[in-house]
Design brief:
The protein has 346 residues and is α/β, with parallel strands linked by helices. It has 8 helices and 16 strands. Strands 1-2-4-3 form a 4-stranded mixed sheet, covered by helices on one side. The protein has a 4-stranded mixed sheet with strand order 5-6-8-7, covered by helices on one side.
C-alpha cells in the first residue's frame, strides 16, 4: 500500500490529486493522511472530493473516507480504466481544471476514448485557468503524443461557478514521448485572450486587451489579442491569458481572473509582468507549466529536460511524489530540470 503524508512539501490539494491519479495508474492501494494540512481550510474540499471520486469511478475502485473536510482516505483502485462518457458537477466554484488535470493521465491509458463534462469554476485565483490548460499545457502534451481536447462551453467564476468544461482524451496506444526544451529562443509572437462576462458596458475585455498591447508593444513584442464578451456565464466575471511562443517551439503563459475591486488595467499589468518575469529567466516553461509537466514526463519513455523559471514548492512536491509512486528519478540543477521517464504503458 502506498502511504502518503499529505502535509509533506506543498501540503496542498495537488499532492492528493497526483497521488490518487498515480495510484490508479499503477493499480496500488493508497492510504493518505493529513490531507491539505497546511491549508487554511484543511481536508477535502468539494473539488478534491470530486477528483478522488472521479478516479475511483473511472477504475471501478473502492473508497473510504471520501467526505467533505476528511483528512484521511483509503483508496483501492480497480483493475482497469474503462473509458467512456462521464459527467461531474463540483457543486461550487471549485476548479474544473484541477479535476481535468487529474483525469488526463488516466484517460491516456484507458481502454477507449474518454469524454468528461465538468461543471464548476473555470477562472479563479490559485488554480490553473481553463485558458492556460487549453492554450499552453495541452499543446505541449500533444507534442508528447497525447490526443487531448479541451473546450470552454460556459465560463464559471467565484463565487457561483456553474461553468462548463468539456474534456476529450483518446487512448495513447503506446508511450508518451519525452520533451527536450533547453533553449528559449526568440519570441515570435505574444498571443492573448481577454474575456469578460456581462461587462460589455464597462468595456472590461477591451480595456484589458488594450493595456496588454500598450505594455508589450512598448517593449517591442508583437501582440495579437482576442477579445471576448460573454453573456452565458451565471454572473459577472473576467479572465485574461497571455501566451508567448518562441522560435524553438516553447510556450510560456501567464494569466489572472477578475474579481470585485480588481481593475481591468491592474489585471493586464499583473499578467504582463508575470509573463515578462518568466521570460527574463530564459526558462522554456512558465512557472505553472514547469510543475504540471512533471507527472507526464515521469510517465514518458526516456529523459525529459526543460528549464523552469524557479523551483517552487509544487516542483519539489511533484518530483518527490513521482519518484515515490512511479520510481521516476528527477532532479533540478539551477533552472535545469531532468526527469527519467519510466515508459509507463497499460
Amino acid at each position: 500500500m502506498i502511504e502518503i503524508d499529505g502535509s509533506m512539501y506543498s501540503g496542498s490539494g495537488t499532492l492528493l490529486r497526483y497521488a490518487v491519479a498515480l495510484a490508479t495508474l499503477v493499480g496500488e492501494p493508497l492510504h493518505m493522511t493529513r490531507i491539505r494540512a497546511k491549508r487554511e481550510k484543511p481536508g477535502l474540499m468539494p473539488q478534491h472530493l470530486q477528483a478522488v471520486r472521479a478516479c475511483c469511478s473511472l477504475s471501478d475502485g473502492e473508497l473510504e473516507g471520501a467526505e467533505l473536510k476528511s483528512a484521511e482516505i483509503f483508496y483501492r483502485p480497480g483493475k482497469s480504466l474503462k473509458g467512456g462518457n462521464f459527467q461531474w458537477d463540483i457543486g461550487t466554484a471549485g476548479s474544473t481544471t484541477m479535476l481535468a488535470f487529474t483525469l488526463i493521465p488516466l484517460a491516456l491509458f484507458a481502454q477507449r476514448t474518454c469524454r468528461f463534462a465538468i461543471r464548476g469554476g473555470l477562472f479563479q485565483d490559485n488554480a490553473p485557468s481553463a485558458f492556460h490548460m487549453q492554450r499552453v499545457l495541452i499543446p505541449i502534451l500533444q507534442r508528447m503524443g497525447a490526443k487531448v481536447r479541451v473546450e470552454v462551453l460556459r465560463p464559471g467564476y467565484l463565487p457561483r461557478g456553474q461553468g462548463h468544461l468539456m474534456l476529450e482524451v483518446e487512448p495513447l496506444g503506446g508511450f508518451l514521448k519525452p520533451l527536450f526544451m533547453i533553449e528559449q529562443g526568440n519570441i515570435k509572437e505574444v498571443w492573448g485572450i481577454s474575456l469578460a462576462s456581462h461587462l460589455e458596458k464597462e468595456k472590461v475585455s477591451e480595456r484589458m486587451a488594450n493595456r496588454c498591447r500598450k505594455l508589450l508593444e512598448e517593449r517591442g513584442y508583437p501582440v495579437r489579442m482576442e477579445v471576448l464578451n460573454d453573456k452565458t456565464a451565471m454572473q459577472k466575471g473576467a479572465a485574461l491569458l497571455l501566451r508567448a511562443e518562441t522560435d524553438t517551439e516553447c510556450l510560456l503563459g501567464a494569466d489572472q481572473a477578475g474579481k470585485p475591486g480588481r481593475r481591468s488595467e491592474a489585471i493586464a499589468e499583473f499578467v504582463v509582468h508575470s509573463l515578462l518575469e518568466d521570460l527574463r529567466t530564459k526558462a522554456t516553461t512558465d512557472r505553472h507549466l514547469g510543475d504540471q509537466l512533471i507527472l507526464f514526463a515521469a510517465l514518458g519513455h526516456g529523459r525529459t529536460e526543460y528549464l523552469i523559471p524557479q523551483v517552487t514548492e509544487h516542483v519539489e512536491s511533484n518530483l518527490w511524489l513521482v519518484e515515490k509512486i512511479l520510481g521516476a528519478k528527477g532532479k533540478v540543477e539551477g533552472s535545469h530540470l531532468r526527469i527519467e521517464g519510466i515508459g509507463f504503458h497499460k
